[in-house]
Amino acid sequence: MRRVVITGAGTINALGHDVASTLEAMREGRCGIGRLDIRDVDRLAVKIGGQVTGYDEHAHFNRQQISLYDRFTQFTLLAADQALAQAGLSFSGALSDRSGVVLGTSGGGLNTQDENYRAVYEDGKNRVHPFIVPKLMNNAAASHVSMQHNLRGPSFTVATACASSNHAMGQAFAMIRGGMADVMITGGSESMLCFGGVKAWEGLRVMSKDACRPFSATRNGMVQGEGAGVFVFEEYDHARARGADILAEVAGFAMTSDASDIVTPSKQGAGRAIAGALHDAKLNAWDVGYINAHGTGTAANDKTECAAVADVFGAHADDLMISSTKSMHGHLIGGTGAVELLACLMALRDGVIAPTIGYEEPDPECALDVVPNIARDAKVTATLSNAFAFGGLNAVIALRSI
Amino acid sequence: MTIDTEVRQIIAEQALLDISDVTAEKSLEDLGIDSLGLVESIFAIEEAFDINVPFNANDPQASDFDISSVGAIVKAVEKLIQDQRG
């Protein structure tokens, strides 16, 4: 079977506008969550988020591009540029036909929808800009990456709520492994920090008003983030033949469905996905040194996730480290797994385990080594990244150092 | 600003050209405006003059709105303003 490796990574999120600054913030345990700077924030009960700050779209795109690029597309294109620059790949001829894009997003162009619903419903306008549809569609980001980089193979978008980008990366992995493509640009993006986007989440009453404190007994909910994470997945021999710097091997992937509840997570569903990823990667439980948790900071997720990890890993669960970087960058929903995979790369390449910040008090139901508050140096050779979506759709990716 | 100047300005912005290059006899194709650029120009014209432009992108020829040249568009806009503003 063909092997798949990562040869490029890019991101923009609340912690930084590229991979280096994001990893530095994770090492330092810095929090990117702050007061939301969006229209009508005073009408929101939840006023915090992991917003991308210091960002001016005009610094990156011209007027014509902005009329077609929603914020989630802009984030994607910037992250993809970084990833492809690192990989040192450009696409033409046969390689172009054998390369594609599969990205995750949950809300797609939600800012565009929000602004234009506001224009027609609240402001009473009877006319909207002609590009609203191509700007808001969920596949806009994937399509623009394909157009910009001449990727003419399989491209599509995956929408599975909070697991979207893990599912997307799982597809990219499977497509290269199975021979359908040689290079895939993959990951995910989200930008739903607008009035309607936050208001909808507020309704579920799972949001914290002050901080995301995963696994801490004092946790009181999740905090939304925004941004993108994009990777270059490449067939191993192809990467080796051109002397590429290989960041890690994508060792395995598994997805399962709880088939039980539309919002409540299931220990069995999560556990089967974790065990499935280990099996697919031919890893033993004791090979895994670090898990990037889904770790949303809600009561339901964190205890279910810890129970699933304890079940799958048995005694080794007490030896491995598991942290939730959502405490720093917030929950990027459809883009979250992609940004979180960066923490796995940092563990494998730099030997630094990103912490779970905001940790105040142990919870007996989350009695694992959650790397509280301070990053830790450790040598690990295999990692997992968990994503468990509303709708009971679970996706776990295993990386191995190479 | 005259209607002629305003329409030419809208088209010039779309074509990323100076307004002096957007002359009456030029077609949109001459100016490098594609189908997306055309619908965006029509939107800008509707917004600028507060009129409705009868234009169907599926069949541009079938519309009453003549887009064969810059001059034709200006004339059509003038007529729409007259008709729709009463």
TrEMBL record, chain A:
<dbReference type="InterPro" id="IPR014030">
    <property type="entry name" value="Ketoacyl_synth_N"/>
</dbReference>
<dbReference type="GO" id="GO:0006633">
    <property type="term" value="P:fatty acid biosynthetic process"/>
</dbReference>
<keyword id="KW-1003">Cell membrane</keyword>
<dbReference type="InterPro" id="IPR018201">
    <property type="entry name" value="Ketoacyl_synth_AS"/>
</dbReference>
<keyword id="KW-0012">Acyltransferase</keyword>
<dbReference type="GO" id="GO:0005886">
    <property type="term" value="C:plasma membrane"/>
</dbReference>
<dbReference type="InterPro" id="IPR016039">
    <property type="entry name" value="Thiolase-like"/>
</dbReference>
<keyword id="KW-1133">Transmembrane helix</keyword>
<dbReference type="InterPro" id="IPR000794">
    <property type="entry name" value="Beta-ketoacyl_synthase"/>
</dbReference>
<keyword id="KW-0997">Cell inner membrane</keyword>
<keyword id="KW-0536">Nodulation</keyword>
<dbReference type="InterPro" id="IPR020841">
    <property type="entry name" value="PKS_Beta-ketoAc_synthase_dom"/>
</dbReference>
<keyword id="KW-0812">Transmembrane</keyword>
<comment type="similarity">
    <text>Belongs to the thiolase-like superfamily. Beta-ketoacyl-ACP synthases family.</text>
</comment>
<keyword id="KW-0472">Membrane</keyword>
<protein>
    <recommendedName>
        <fullName>Nodulation protein E</fullName>
    </recommendedName>
</protein>
<dbReference type="InterPro" id="IPR014031">
    <property type="entry name" value="Ketoacyl_synth_C"/>
</dbReference>
<comment type="function">
    <text>Proposed to synthesize NOD factor fatty acyl chain. Involved in the synthesis of a highly unsaturated fatty acid moiety, which forms part of a lipo-oligosaccharide that is responsible for host specificity.</text>
</comment>
<feature type="domain" description="Ketosynthase family 3 (KS3)">
    <location>
        <begin position="1"/>
        <end position="401"/>
    </location>
</feature>
<dbReference type="Pfam" id="PF02801">
    <property type="entry name" value="Ketoacyl-synt_C"/>
</dbReference>
<keyword id="KW-0808">Transferase</keyword>
<dbReference type="GO" id="GO:0004315">
    <property type="term" value="F:3-oxoacyl-[acyl-carrier-protein] synthase activity"/>
</dbReference>
UniProtKB/TrEMBL annotation, chain B:
<dbReference type="InterPro" id="IPR009081">
    <property type="entry name" value="PP-bd_ACP"/>
</dbReference>
<keyword id="KW-0597">Phosphoprotein</keyword>
<dbReference type="Pfam" id="PF00550">
    <property type="entry name" value="PP-binding"/>
</dbReference>
<dbReference type="InterPro" id="IPR036736">
    <property type="entry name" value="ACP-like_sf"/>
</dbReference>
<protein>
    <submittedName>
        <fullName>Acyl carrier protein</fullName>
    </submittedName>
</protein>
<feature type="domain" description="Carrier">
    <location>
        <begin position="1"/>
        <end position="81"/>
    </location>
</feature>
<dbReference type="InterPro" id="IPR006162">
    <property type="entry name" value="Ppantetheine_attach_site"/>
</dbReference>
<keyword id="KW-0596">Phosphopantetheine</keyword>
